[in-house]
Write a structure and sequence with these properties.
About 25% of the residues lie in helices and about 25% in strands. The chain is built from ten helices and 19 strands. It folds into two domains: about 1-145 and about 330-355, Medium-chain alcohol dehydrogenases, catalytic domain (Quinone Oxidoreductase, Chain A, domain 1, Alpha-Beta Complex), CATH 3.90.180.10; about 155-300, NAD(P)-binding Rossmann-like Domain (Rossmann fold, 3-Layer(aba) Sandwich), CATH 3.40.50. The strands form four sheets. Strands 3, 5, 6, 10, 11, 18 and 19 form a seven-stranded mixed sheet that branches. Strands 14-13-12-15-16-17 form a six-stranded parallel sheet, with helices on both faces. α3 packs across α4, α3 (about 150-165) crosses α8 and α4 (about 190-200) packs parallel to α5. The longest helix has 17 residues, at about 150-165. Bound molecules: zinc ion (2 copies). One zinc ion (ZN) binds near residues 92 and 112. One zinc ion binds near residues 93, 107 and 109.
Amino acid sequence: MKAIVVKPSSKGVEVRDVNEKEVQNFGRVKVRIIENGICGTDREIVQGKMTSARAPQGRDWLVLGHEALGVVEEPFGEFKVNDVVMPVNRRGCGKCNNCLMGRADHCETGEFVEAGISDMDGFMREYYYDDPKYLVKVPKGIEDIAILAQPLSDLEKSVNEIIKVQERVYWTCNDGTFSCRRALVIGSGPIGILVSMLLRSHSFQVIVANRREPTEIEDQIFQEIGAEYFNSAKGYTELKGRFDVIFNASTAPPTVIEDIIPFLNYNGVLGLFGFPPSGEMKLSFQEIQRLSLKGVAILGLANGQKPHFEEAMRHLSQWKITWPKTTNKLITRTVHVDEAPKVLSFKEENEIKVKIRW
Ligand SMILES: [Zn+2]
Ligand SMILES: [Zn+2]
């Protein structure tokens, strides 16, 4: 079968034939891949820049891909032929309590594996076999945008976690929702857009910041979902007021964290999701003390598991109805698998999500 293959820590990517026996499989449901999504992580691996990328034991190459949509070809368990499914991409270490309870997002050994990233073959191949426990059913009517459920699952987990942590204070507003809470999202890429949609769905006031004017598409999206856009090219001082949530959805230099910390409200949350490939930041003792006196929580946010994929599917179904213009704009290009090396090697202007079709 054809697969998209990389050699971790060296640059390059190729579409080549692999033997069914030499790639990893994980269960008895045969899934034929319909499409894959690509994101910054895939591109970092292809550029040889992702230090945590690793091939499965015993070889130097890896099947790429952690965002996938497929159709069941050989049924097993609750999965029937022709069911459209999405695989959960991070799998547990098999040792710690969190992993054993289906929450590899909180793995305690750090020995989890990630499809197409570390120690586990990914989903950019014609077909593979999986365990029902790692498959999520795609509801009817959202097949065109369902690929977004993978990145969105990470954000569902993130926003859930922020809300959970804030149970430490009286955080809901006098209408019982979060409508009086202000969230600042740093970055207006696919992650910035998806997390803004999610925060709006939870009634937060949302301001999205990037160091340039918004594109026409961004303008239309933020208008429809009711988020404000802020050009942060000259810093954040013109932003009025403080924020209850600041969510870093960018790969901007770490100094951006230094710049925005003063804008955190009392009892606020700084959500760390996006990271630059390198760089340094400094926090003085006084600044740390100020954060501490303000009761700020700094949360490391990564990875969604099956419950979050399911929530992501529900939100995508809802958003197709409430924000149809936005959901129509999120997939900016679909290419055939032969063009995959090209789209994996560089990012197009105005790109939001690119899909590879098998
Ligand atoms: Zn990704
Ligand atoms: Zn674990």
